[in-house]
Design goal:
Helices cover about 35% and strands about 15% of the residues. By secondary structure, the protein is α/β, with parallel strands linked by helices. The strands form two sheets. The chain has an eight-stranded mixed β-sheet with strand order 3-4-6-5-7-8-9-10, with helices on both faces. Helix 7 links the parallel strand 7 and strand 8. It is globular, with a radius of gyration of 23 Å. The relative contact order is 0.11.
């Protein structure tokens, strides 16, 4: 009922009368005019700052889907890699963060393995089985993979879902995975990288653009870069997932400094760690118009630290666009669905990581 009243108010405000404007703005004695807006259009444009108006998800279905994903991880790991799921407390506020651990079946010994913290993408995304072929390949190359489900991830109920803090505490949630790695006797914490896709690439860049970082290197695939651009480009439907977050409480025009702080693009000059970034010109999620300024900034100001590549219209799969150009997986077999661009991108990723982590 409260939301209905708010939407009705939004519709009423949208009906602007020229009589409320100064006489000179009315064009002299021009008769009063009304610009109507129907309630459906008002609902599309209305963006609340109220936490209780945050978009609602099917939390029970997400929990069931997560259980299914975990069972697939367990089954597909058998005989190929060690798998477990545990948790740790975030450095930000002590929140319990679920984390997947994938490692070789027979670790080589104490502090013998390089590790990677892999960060999933999506506003309210999570780790799913479609990452499996890449996890298996990484473990077969000798890496230990830590995959945290930072706050806001789906599959852990309403409260955890609504703790989303895009570009805020979630970055600390992922950073804490490095400290968790210290508890694994077979991980060499002097050889830990961070890697992510999309929103995960956004978090990866944040962790490397802080200046001081414990990570030896980073890989950001099709990363979100600039929230000012992103929210204006995507519109009200997308903005609602941000404006209602408890530590944002508004849009960029209302919280300029906070959105700037949460946009990696504005912190490029702090990079002091090797970084690999790949983007695609036909990306319809992190549009190239958002990605290109970051690539230009890295090439111009950080050429000694950043390796970048722009893939021009990489081959899309049957259900994918440029945004998933190097994450193509057959959803039935859970094997890689390779394209020339995917093969090239991963060859560059493995070469970059082997150079800096020596697995």
């Amino acid at each position: 009922m409260r939301r209905s009243r708010l939407l009705a108010s939004a519709a009423a405000i949208a009906a602007v009368t020229l009589s409320s404007l100064p006489l000179h703005a009315q064009g002299g004695t021009r008769p009063r005019q009304v610009v109507p807006m129907d309630s459906a259009r008002a609902r599309q444009l209305y963006v609340s700052n109220r936490h209780e108006d945050h978009p609602v998800a099917d939390y029970d279905a997400a929990v069931r889907n997560k259980a299914r994903t975990d069972s697939i991880f367990a089954a597909r790991s058998t005989g190929r890699m060690a798998y477990r799921k545990t948790s740790y407390k975030s450095l930000a506020d002590g929140l319990e963060i679920p984390v997947y651990v994938f490692s070789p079946l027979q670790p080589r010994g104490d502090r013998a393995h390089a590790a990677m913290v892999w960060v999933h993408g999506g506003v309210h995304g999570n780790w799913d089985q479609n990452y499996l072929p890449f996890i298996l390949e990484a473990v077969e190359r000798g890496y230990v993979i830590l995959a945290p489900e930072y706050r806001g991830s789906t599959g852990y109920g309403r409260e955890f879902h609504n703790k989303i803090d895009y570009g805020g505490y979630e970055v600390d949630d992922v950073l804490t995975a490095y400290d968790f790695a210290k508890t694994l006797p077979y991980v060499d914490t002097t050889r830990v990288a961070v890697m992510g896709w999309s929103h995960g690439g956004f978090i990866t860049n944040h962790l490397l653009f802080r200046g001081a970082t414990p990570f030896k290197a980073g890989v950001a695939m099709v990363p979100v870069t600039n929230l000012f651009f992103r929210l204006s480009y995507k519109g009200p439907g997308y903005q609602r997932s941000f404006s209602t977050q408890s530590r944002l409480q508004g849009l960029p025009f209302e919280q300029r400094e906070e959105y700037k702080r949460r946009s990696p693009y504005y912190h490029v000059d702090s990079l002091r760690t090797p970084l690999l970034v790949h983007v695609a010109t036909n990306d319809t999620d992190v549009n190239f118009e958002e990605a290109e300024p970051l690539i230009d900034a890295l090439r111009a100001r950080k050429p000694h630290w950043a390796e970048t590549k722009i893939y021009v219209d990489p081959t899309p799969g049957p259900a994918s666009v440029g945004h998933t150009f190097n994450r193509r997986v057959n959803r039935q077999t859970l094997e890689r669905d390779d394209s020339p661009e995917q093969i090239d991108s991963w060859n560059l990723v493995w070469a970059f990581l082997e150079k800096h982590l020596q697995p």
